[in-house]
Predict the structure of DNA-entry nuclease.
Amino acid sequence: MNALEKIGKVILWILFWYYLIPYYLLKKYVFKHSKRDRLWSSLSSVVIVFVLFCCWVNSLPDDDSSTSTTEPKVHYIVKKVGQKELIKAQIKEKVLDKEEKKEEAEYEKLVAALAAAKNKAKKEKLAEEKAEKEAKEEAAKEVKRDNYSANSSQSTKTEHHHNSGAPAGNHGDMNTADSGKIVGNRNSKIYHVPGQAGYRMNSANAVYFDSEAEAKAAGYRKALR
């Protein structure tokens, strides 16, 4: 609040109290029988207004003290920015934008690399599962082949024992050693030549050949003994 505003309020306050309240009351009730009621009313009003004014001025707080105790003074500094500073700020902003774009590009590269690594790991896992499956299948085939070979070897040994080691007179109604010819067994596809150890067989299964070449051409093989 400046000095002019204070003075204006004081004047209005004096006028208000002088003309409306003290003057009116003194003239009507105190000096109503006096011949100079206006003069005495005016003087009395002035005294009353002066006393009230002094009391009011004393009751007013000091602006400087109240301001200093309640609120600190704030000083604002206005700094003018020159053309050079503005250019530097613009350059700095461009550099920051460039660095931000670079970081975004690196982040995108990292995301792409992570996705590629996941896809690669997935493919490797599928390849391992496929290889493991193929290995199991191959092992099963190998076991099957081994079993087949073992069975074949066992049947060959059994047949060999039957053809070479069985003494005459085991089975059948004829002996190959007594025929004097090349005799083949229709069931076993084995032929015997004269001079080999004979074995008995059913005459119904006997096939006679004129030479070993003829027997081999027919799909027969020679007995081991």
